[in-house]
């Protein structure tokens, strides 16, 4: 009986070992690349699948968790700085990417596919490149206001013609609302920027919990207009809401609107640097930018491409003529000062 027990035990061990080795061989089979991305999986996964099909390189993605969004991935990259697990970071904005560069998490790589992207959206030292933008817009309920009275500027938020409680913004302490506030500080100067937001607060406009809330309140007619992002505005348009999108401050002397690019970067000491560069090249291709516009994730191409977003009439958008590092430099000040203004 003891002999039989030993034989059974040995057989079991060989079976387990065989399964383990088979699993390891499957995991290690062929070239691979690890990407951390804050882009919603419904938009990013099809792009990554195309890369796999085109190159034969297996992509191992780590998507954000909705509760943590970009911050969770950034904290993970910071924690892994000395022993990186990721090769590539694909971010839906630029501020946290700049933070990672400053913290030494990124490595320089100048992709040839970034050559025709405007210098405003490419790090001068090659640590990240921007592509496939979104923008800040005014969303208007067309049943509540005549075309002749449509707002054309962020400064129309202060126009007393419109009741203050019928105009809305998201709290300018988080996400693109905070980044836009930092861009306003950078463009006007800190004193004038602070004064603009003090006037908004004193006027009593509605300040709500996020861009999507602004969208929903405008679409339902509870607000005449509000400030939001192109992806939220596009969602309302596609659902047939009685809304119109205005890109603010587009005149000759206007500030332009904030364009928020996706950014992609190489992780310092990436485990798979060659595959990482291939993936970065793929993401920065015109074909990928076109695909992201078709899918509805992006609405502003950073260079001439062969498609137009389906939600908006304006195919040429004037962005704010601002260095993204100048905007980033105002973020901490903005969050501190606007918390004092808007949170009592």
Structure description:
- α5 (175-188) crosses α6 and α5 packs across α11.
- The model is unreliable at 1-27 (pLDDT under 50).
- Strands 1, 2, 3, 4, 5, 6, 7, 8, 9 and 10 form a 10-stranded mixed β-sheet that branches.
- This protein is of the alpha/beta class and 344 residues long.
- The chain has helices spanning 2-28, 41-55, 69-79, 95-102, 175-188, 190-203, 211-219, 230-238, 273-283, 286-295, 324-342; strands at residues 32-37, 58-63, 88-91, 106-107, 129-141, 167-170, 206-208, 225-229, 243-246, 259-267.
- The protein has 2 domains: 29-133 and 260-314, D-Maltodextrin-Binding Protein, domain 2 (3-Layer(aba) Sandwich), CATH 3.40.190; 134-258 and 327-342, D-Maltodextrin-Binding Protein, domain 2.
Task: Give the arrangement of secondary structure elements.
Layout: H1 2-28, E1 32-37, H2 41-55, E2 58-63, H3 69-79, E3 88-91, H4 95-102, E4 106-107, E5 129-141, E6 167-170, H5 175-188, H6 190-203, E7 206-208, H7 211-219, E8 225-229, H8 230-238, E9 243-246, E10 259-267, H9 273-283, H10 286-295, H11 324-342
Parallel strand pairs: 1-2, 1-3, 6-7, 6-8
Antiparallel strand pairs: 3-10, 4-10, 5-8, 5-9, 5-10
Helix pairs in contact: 5-6, 5-11, 6-11
